[in-house]
Design goal:
The complex is a heterodimer of chains A (586) and B (692). Chain A is of the alpha+beta class and 586 residues long. Chain A has 3 domains: 218 residues, no CATH class; 164 residues, no CATH class; 54 residues, no CATH class. In chain A, a hairpin with a 2-residue loop joins strand 12 and strand 13. Chain A is globular. In chain A, 62% of the residues are buried. Chain B has 692 residues and is an alpha+beta fold. Among the domains of chain B are: 65 residues, ATPase, nucleotide binding domain (Nucleotidyltransferase, domain 5), CATH 3.30.420; 140 residues, Rossmann fold, CATH 3.40.50; 108 residues, no CATH class; 61 residues, no CATH class. Chain B has 18 helices and 35 strands. In chain B, helix 5 links the parallel strand 9 and strand 10. At the A-B interface, helix 1, helix 6, helix 7, strand 15 and helix 10 of A face helix 3, helix 7 and helix 12 of B.
């Protein structure tokens, strides 16, 4: 048990959480790029002197578990060269235990009584860091040097003095220097706010009490995590998922996981996954670990503190040289897609152990549509985190218009896009009849359409789930596959899910982006006809879809209102029952 | 003699307040009477009037606060609402901003949209971002939609078209068609309610307004009829979420303005109090049975929420993600709320941590000590164990309690498993409750770059005086003020509010190159509109002009006062400097004049100068016998034999703690190292010792 009394421990937990929230709010309000300030693709943490997280902002779960690796690596790199008013910067996946090049860490040491006590840490996805593709998510990159500016552990500010050389280097190597500089400034401001908060706590409680509290908080989180994991039946649960693959003739990327639960401890083993590939979707090991933490944390029902302690209940293994633990110079610009798929894959495995705590598979994570070019003499790079829809749970239909569990990110207001970029959004909404059929229905697919208004522009996108659509659970149908098209006049061209290189769009052409829909849960023909009727009324399912997918006959009554034809429904369902077994899918 | 009265309706009680010409308060608390809320109001007003010797027929004005709009949303009982929007975008309302309020919750379920998908209609039209039509409005299509709406049994319609904040032509025309074709429906145009960029927020705000429109109208109609039937004359005014009062007629047009009116009234009352004491900066702390709320008054002014959502179960302004409620971008006082009140349950989680709330025992069964079937310990039970609350009864003797049941509950659930003494456990619970509430206060202070130490704490609500001093201590605040009638202080606040409205209009452009004549034309239009809403000639309206500014390229705006009567008189340099100062205070750095700043919108706060709230308050003298009881003040101070007195007995001479001040409306706990007295307005002032 802890030495800190339980009341003080709870008080300290609130205090740490509050500081992490303040760091986060400062970034939201002072950032410049759409992807940071509107999409919220960034993360924050307050850490102890050894880089272990004490609290994290309500941001991006798949980032969060990776802070410790990055800070530990940084501490080893810098040795004792840490001083008050230093600010460190880094992004390299290999030299700095980073995630991918656009994710730049900015961290500030926190001193109290002249001793290093902690770190204020931020990570933001920058709008561009150079490389062969605008937005620096080149799927076709063959090695990391093609992906942009690699920053090892460096001082961005050295004892209060700005490292002007570095600032100038960065500014010249990115396509959107105003945004990148502005966002870095926001990160610095946020770090200072966090540092101020922790120093105040030291002043109030003193070194011994506070640091005992930190240790006890981590121990408490671990204790709670172990108790939660022991609720999952012991055993090994396996699942295989796929990323469709890159380019016109994609080769599927295999993600193979075995989750072993034993006595309150979880081992996540990725043995059997594909070797690392010559394409930008390799997931660095810190990121792979973070995704495992996020997935398992999501099964816990207690309010586990978001600190380092709980991760100690989870061990992650992956073969070196695999797509989930690449070695240099494996490119990883679009590694987000692999992270999202790892979480999906883990939910697939955990569904066998705890089917009431997960949903069927959803649309996957952000597809990061990026449209760039020159307009009126200026370079523009538009990029947003497009999400999403969920599979059904046993109790509820799949949620529609939600982020992936790995990244709590936002859309960008259409009016803001159109005011800022030479783009017009022509459509944003749900697709009827798309949700995977089931006793509970998967969420509908989302369609968003972008019309180019500049003379020409380059499009990049990292979608997925066309060849391998989202799985259903317990006999529920899978979701509908994703689709990307270019519409020009009355013709159209289908795009690969993961573009090996950007596609040229001309003025007036439309990029039509349809995400996959969510998988269903349970047999569709067992769905309550009243719920099918509701779906028809709400125009989520058509009359034809109701009959075909659910065996429910809906018609319009005398007053034009929809109603169930009970007799026909019984006939449809009886007929289906004869063919039961043909339709089992998962 | 003409008189004004306030009524504030909550879920359980209806509070009535009256301030006599000499500032003496008269209050009444009666059980609420849902669904016919007017009956309790009439009952409370009649009782109060009888006691104060007032004739109902002389009532000149009732200022009212209620939860009807919020409850319509929380309970899903608003109007059947349709939305008309641009072709291709009917799902914007349901897609929201995608992000969800909680991490790691795969089973999260979103709030249902207030206008269901089949009642969201897309009209053929499209306005560009530059305000030039890309596709003309198809008026026949709009008429067909109106006919579909008529057939669908809809009660209210919101119209929100893309880029209407830039050019409202299409939206206004659609509105005309709807009004012509659907004369009996409640129609809201987004451009009338929130002419600002960001389609989800504007759509949601318009839909909320439509959704609560019919129920609010019906409620006010019934309330007025009840009052008239009882022989009450006079007008009905209402508090808005922005803290100003307006005639109820205005509320019927923009009902979404009243969603936070109850909590707002308390903050307005505290602002008045601060002014009367010559205090520029205070933090307000309002703690009731289920929640605690914090807000801030700075330089005498209220602060406003930047991303308010109605119906979010826990609307801590600090919750970054949002998404738990329905976006409402009208002026709402920034009030941060946490689920910790006297009735909040106290429990141990499986890791051995102490938790307070958010589940609450409510009025039934209530805390364990109520002996009404509840056995789980609550915050109130901890306060009973500590001796902070009366050991025999609460609420001035009206609610009998059994202190042994509190001791059993705290002892069995908290003290025994943790192997702690009863008092240590109860004090720990009190501290954890304080920590939860401190977070709410930080959300409106440190999150804005403010240091609570520069503020005094005004504590009210039934439990404000019990927890206020402890909270002040943990924030290093030295002075706590507990106003008279603290338990019904929101009702008092209604009588202390100004008559005012806040209006805003999008107006974008580089600050240094702004066309002054155009800006003044916008302000003039806003002034005319405000005059209409306040029912005061435009020449008499007192106006405060403001602009929302931001660095070009950022998305977060800061509201800055023009400190001028017209834009044309504005000293741009000084104006820009005020923006820089505020930015630096919030975020710890500023770009100074290095980065360009743009105007996003123009804002006008209009006040009726003829309406003057009273300038002093006094608690009627109410002598109560002095008693003594054992009170535990934490490990540092231990157990003290403590005097328990009434407010009247306290007096102006400072007295050393420990002391308990017990009243009908609430209790104030003065720790041993604090001093306390009452000021000329009957406020209890507690000055705390050095921080423990």
């Amino acid at each position: 048990m802890s030495k800190t009394d339980p009341f003080l421990l709870e008080v300290l937990r609130y205090a740490f959480d509050t500081i992490a929230e303040e760091i986060t709010l400062t970034i939201v309000r002072t950032a410049y790029s759409q992807i940071v300030r509107d999409s919220l693709d960034f993360s924050t943490a307050l850490c102890d002197a050894r880089g272990r997280t004490l609290a994290q902002g309500v941001c991006t779960p798949m980032h969060l578990g990776a802070f410790h690796d990055a800070l530990r690596n940084m501490l080893a790199e810098v040795g004792g060269d840490v001083h008050p008013d230093d600010v460190f910067i880094m992004n390299d996946p290999y030299a700095a235990a980073g995630q991918h090049l656009p994710d730049i860490y900015v961290v500030q040491p926190i001193f109290f009584e002249s001793v290093l006590r902690g770190w204020s840490a931020t990570l933001a996805h920058h709008s561009d860091v150079g490389g062969i593709v605008a937005g620096s998510n080149a799927l076709g990159a063959r090695e990391i040097w093609q992906e942009g500016l690699r920053i090892p552990v460096l001082k961005l500010i050295d004892q209060g003095a700005r490292n002007e050389t570095l600032w100038k280097m960065i500014a010249l190597n990115v396509r959107t220097p105003d945004m990148v500089m502005g966002d870095l400034q926001a990160q610095i401001a946020a770090c200072a706010i966090g540092a101020r908060g922790l120093v105040k706590l030291y002043e109030r409680y003193g070194v011994d009490t506070l640091e005992q509290g930190m240790a006890d908080l981590n121990a408490y989180a671990l204790r709670l995590a172990r108790a939660e994991i022991s609720d999952i039946p012991d055993g090994t649960y396996r699942f295989t998922d796929h990323i469709d693959g890159i380019g016109d003739d994609p080769e599927p990327v295999i993600l193979n996981v075995a989750v072993t639960i034993e006595g309150g401890h979880a081992v996540v083993d990725w043995t059997g996954s594909s070797d690392q590939i010559e394409g930008g979707i390799n997931s660095t090991f810190p990121f792979t670990k973070a995704c495992a933490y996020a997935a398992i944390r999501s099964l816990m029902q207690a309010d586990v503190p978001n600190c380092h302690g709980f991760t100690e209940a989870i061990e992650v293994r992956a073969p070196e040289g695999s797509v989930v633990r690449p070695t240099s110079p494996g490119p990883c610009g679009a590694r987000g897609i692999t992270g999202y798929r790892m979480i999906d894959c883990l939910f697939g495995a955990l569904a066998q152990a705890a089917p009431d705590r997960v949903t069927a598979d959803g649309s996957g994570g952000s597809t990061l549509p990026t449209i760039s070019g020159m307009h009126e003499g200026r370079m523009f790079v538009f990029c947003e985190t497009a999400m999403g829809t969920w599979g059904a749970s046993r109790a509820n239909d799949g949620q529609e218009g939600v982020p992936h569990i790995g990244a709590n990110q936002s859309n960008v207001p259409i009016e803001m896009i159109e005011q800022t970029y030479p783009l017009r959004i022509e459509h944003y909404g749900f697709e009827i009849d798309s949700g995977g059929a089931g006793r509970t229905r998967g969420g509908m697919a989302l369609r968003r359409e972008y019309r180019v208004l500049s003379d020409k522009a380059l499009l990049n996108v990292r979608s997925d789930k066309r060849a391998f659509p989202p799985h259903g659970l317990d006999g529920g149908a899978p979701g509908k596959p994703s689709m990307n098209k270019i519409l020009f006049g009355t013709s159209e061209a289908v795009l690969p899910v993961l573009l090996s290189e950007p596609v040229l769009l001309r003025k007036g052409e439309i990029f039509s982006h349809v995400m996959a829909s969510g998988g269903g849960f349970g047999a569709a023909f067992e769905r309550d006809p009243e719920r099918v009727l509701q779906d028809v009324i709400l125009e989520k399912v058509s009359i034809q879809g109701a009959a075909r997918d659910y065996g429910v006959a809906i018609q319009r009554g005398d007053d034009e209102a929809y109603e169930i034809n009970r007799e026909e429904t019984a006939a449809l369902r009886a007929n289906q029952n004869q063919h039961k077994g043909d339709l089992k899918c998962s | 003699m003409a008189w004004r009265v306030a009524s504030d309706i909550g879920g359980t009680f209806t509070d009535v307040a009256y301030i006599g010409v000499d500032g003496t308060l008269s209050t009444a608390k009666v059980p609420s009477s849902p669904p016919h809320f007017g009956r309790a109001v009439v009952d409370g007003v009649s009782r109060m009037a009888e006691g104060a010797g007032l004739a109902l027929s002389d009532m000149a004005e009732m200022v009212h606060g209620c939860t009807v709009a919020t409850n319509a949303i929380l309970e899903g009982k608003g109007a059947r609402t349709a939305l008309v929007t641009t072709q291709g975008f009917r799902d914007v309302l349901e897609l929201r901003r995608i992000r969800v309020p909680r991490l790691y919750e795969p089973l999260y379920v979103k709030p249902a949209p207030l206008a269901p998908r089949n009642l969201r209609f897309e009209v053929s039209e499209r306005m560009g971002a530059d305000g030039i039509a890309v596709t003309p409005l198809d008026e026949n299509h709009a008429r067909e939609i109106a006919h579909s709406i008529a057939r669908a049994g809809v009660e209210a319609v919101a119209v929100c078209l893309l880029h209407s904040y830039r050019n409202p032509e299409h939206e206004r025309r659609v509105g005309e068609i709807m009004r012509t074709e659907l004369p009996d429906l409640f129609i809201t145009l987004s451009v009338d309610i929130l002419p600002q960029m960001r389609e989800y927020e504007r759509t949601s705000t318009s839909v909320v307004n439509a959704y609560v429109g019919p129920p609010v109208r019906a409620y006010l109609g019934e309330m007025e009829a009840d009052l008239r039937a009882a022989g009450c004359g006079g007008r009905i005014s209402m508090m808005q979420s922005s803290g100003g009062i307006v005639d109820a007629r205005t509320v019927k047009e923009k009902p979404a303005q009243i969603v936070e009116c109850g909590p707002a009234a308390g903050v307005v009352g505290a602002a008045w109090l601060a002014k009367s004491l010559g205090l520029e900066n205070i933090i307000t702390f309002d703690m009731g049975g289920t929640t605690a709320k914090g807000s801030m008054i700075e330089n005498g002014g209220l602060i406003f929420a930047e991303d308010y959502e109605v119906g979010d179960s826990m609307s801590t302004a600090g919750a970054i993600a949002g998404g738990g409620g329905y976006s409402l971008r009208l002026p709402v006082i920034d009030i941060s709320e946490v689920g910790a009140g006297g009735g909040s349950y106290v429990w141990l989680d499986r890791g051995g941590a102490i938790k307070v709330g958010p589940q609450s025992a409510g009025a039934v069964p209530g805390p364990a000590c109520y002996n009404a079937g509840g056995t789980r310990p609550t915050v109130t039970d901890a306060n009973v164990v500590l001796g902070y609350l009366n050991q025999e009864s609460l609420a001035g003797g009206t609610v009998p309690i059994d202190a042994k049941l509190s001791r059993d509950a705290i002892g069995g659930t908290i003290a025994a498993p943790l192997d702690l003494g009863l008092c240590e456990a109860a004090h720990g619970v009190h501290q954890v409750a304080n920590a939860t509430m401190v977070r709410a206060i930080k959300a409106v202070t440190t999150y804005r770059g403010r240091d609570p130490r520069d503020f005094a704490l005004v504590a009210f609500g039934g439990n404000g005086g019990v927890h206020g001093p402890g909270i002040a201590q943990s924030l290093d605040i030295r002075r706590v003020i507990v106003p008279p009638a603290a338990g019904v202080f929101s009702a008092v606040g209604l009588l202390l509010a100004e008559k005012s409205v806040t209006l805003a209009r999008a107006h974008s452009g580089d600050l240094m190159a702004v066309n002054r004549a155009e800006a003044d034309a916008v302000f003039e239009a806003l002034r005319q509109e405000a005059a209409g809403l306040l029912d005061v000639p435009a020449t008499r309206v007192r106006c405060r002009l403001q602009a929302e500014l931001r660095y070009v390229g950022q998305a977060f705006e800061i509201t800055v006062d023009l400190n001028a009567g017209r834009f044309d008189d504005l000293d741009l340099g000084a104006f820009r400097a005020r923006f820089n100062t505020e930015y630096a205070q919030r975020f710890g750095h500023s770009f100074g004049d290095a980065e360009p700043v743009e105007i996003v919108s123009l804002k006008l706060v209009a006040t009726d100068p003829a309406h003057r709230p009273i300038d002093r308050l006094a608690q009627p003298s109410n002598p109560t016998p002095e008693t003594v009881r054992q009170v535990w003040f934490g490990p540092r101070h231990g157990l003290h034999e403590t005097r328990v007195i009434g407010r009247t007995a306290l007096g102006a001479a400072p007295q050393q703690g420990p002391l308990i001040i017990e009243e009908y409306e609430g209790t104030t706990v003065v720790p041993p190292d604090a001093r306390t007295w009452t000021d000329r307005n009957s406020n209890i002032v507690v000055e705390l010792g050095q921080v423990s």
